[in-house]
Design a protein that fits this description.
By secondary structure, this protein is mainly alpha-helical. Helices cover 60% and strands 5% of the residues. It has four helices and two strands. It has a two-stranded antiparallel sheet. Helix 1 runs antiparallel to helix 2 and helix 3 crosses helix 4. The longest helix has 37 residues. The protein is elongated.
Length: 146
């Protein structure tokens, strides 16, 4: 396969840097070893930082030949995007898992094929749980010993 060349405005390059950083962070944040293919793309993109005038946001660690985001810029991106995503996905996953539990209690844990009625019921359960969590947060959740 041949090479692909992109021509970007400075603003587009800044968004590309943010996108590549956040994507690489998401892929590697849960791994013991970094995904080399993602890291290679990140390095390739960040290496062009001087051409875009981003010396205040990207640093080059010459001794190890690694490009990285400035710590403050990195923190800003994490605070802006990752915190919001984590908050949203936490509540979304909590609703999903609690609905799974409710459906398992009603229909058993082996629900390979859901009927249309079961799917409608699940949506109603999720809406009810979501509304309850919006009203009370996790303060009304409880776990009883069996």
């Amino acid at each position: 396969m041949g090479k692909v060349n992109l021509e970007l405005s400075q603003k587009q390059y800044e968004k590309l840097v943010e996108t590549v950083y956040l994507g690489t962070w998401m892929v590697n944040s849960t791994r013991m070893e970094l995904d080399d293919e993602f890291e290679d793309v990140r390095e390739l993109v960040l290496a062009k930082y001087k051409e875009a005038g981003l010396e205040d946001r990207v640093v080059h660690q010459e001794e190890v030949d690694v490009y990285d985001l400035d710590v403050d810029y990195e923190s800003k991106l994490l605070d802006t995007y990752v915190e919001e995503y984590d908050e949203f996905s936490f509540w979304d996953k909590l609703v999903e898992k609690l609905a799974d539990k409710e459906m398992a209690e009603r229909y058993g844990s082996n629900q390979d094929k859901m009927t249309d009625e079961m799917m409608e019921e699940r949506v109603q359960i999720e809406e009810k749980i979501g509304q309850k969590l919006e009203e009370t947060g996790v303060t009304k959740l409880n776990f009883t010993d069996e």
